[in-house]
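Deliverable D4.2, example record:
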Amino acid sequence: MIIVLKNKKGTILMLTLVFTTIFSLTALGIAGWVNYQHRLSRQKVSWHNALQIAEAGINYYRWHLAHAPGDYTDGTGLPGPYIHDYTDPQGAIIGKFSLEIAPANECTSSVIIKSTGWTTIEPNTKRVIAMRYGQESLAAYAFLTNANVWFGNNESLHGEVHSNGGIRMDGQSDSLVTSAKETYICGTEHGCNNEEKPGIWGTGSDQSLWNFPVSNIDFEALTIDLATLKGQAESSGIFLQQQGLGYHIVFKDNGTFDVYRVTKLEHPVWGYDMEKWKRESNDIQTQSFEANYPISGECNIIFAEDDVWVDGVVKGRITLAVAKLPAVSNSYRKIVINDNLTYFEKNGLHVLGLIAQRDIIVPYSSAPEYLEIDAAMIAQNGRIFRYYYENDLKESITTYGSIISNNTWTWTWLNSFGNPISGYEETSTVYDPNLKYKPPPYFPTKETYTFLRWGEETDKQ
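Output generated by the structure prediction step:
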């Protein structure tokens, strides 16, 4: 019996050890599982919170740009990234976000804000949001002017139209037409007898799109610093110094352009420029070849201190500016659209900006009966137009891009009945949607930013 009792005690001890081991292993497994679930739950919460923190970083920098539009260094003047604490409503730090800013520049009007967020309890669980934030280009308008304007019944417009003056709209328009005037005095040049008219009036179609008065667009604030463009062309573009009669630039469909020196003009003719009659020539008779240049990259600039004639097929992204500096009004330079000026393709990859210190004009004889101009054009101190030539009426002109004219604009001269008598009988102005947030290099933009694109870019563990 004693031997049996000893065996029973040993058996009980062994069973106790076995069950204790099983219980311990089970308890450890349960504890590990509970800990794993807790960590998993904490990671999931941190994963969601990291996205909210990253989004808070985006919202913070949007607020910052609203108060300091040109500051892409978070107020530090130093390169990023820029790290900020993220606090709960009681002020406790529960996370951080890190900002990387790709600023707008002369070649792009959009800012890329990249925000990485994480929590303090799970700093290795990170989420990244990237947002493109853009400044709207002035090329968003099909037509923009600082003066009164008259669109005849043979004129069609596709895109937004704005005037700081009054608008007589007898043409066809499919987008917003706005004027800064509630009423204005319509003169004889627009078929009136110096009488008061509404800010927008006429026989044009879809008058539900007319809106006036609206805020004035400050042309003084939109003035481009031509000296900056000159310096940019001298350092990294093409600079053409003043010489004789000017230059002729011919864009080519192989992504280059030829530069010619104009040596002689055709005989002058009489033309009316909306202020007075002038006897002058804007047509080339002879020229000599100077050089061929490539268009490469996204940010090409040509600056000429002389008048420039331009035509051809544009392949690439480039801006042509003409000005005589320091600026003296009687020596302002002009651009002459010598012949058809078109894009290789209308897909946003090929764009042209034309910036004239004074006027952008279409000449008397060299311009064809059917003329197409693909460009965003600015006449900074003058106008975009064709002179009134007696008994000279051509067929049609189409512009694809933008017409931005400080003073009165026209391709067509009308009589008091609204019928074309000089210039182009039919005109069509078409807005280029590719230029709204990706205009030609160095083209002016509005100060305010607009949301363009938001998305989670990557996730980091």
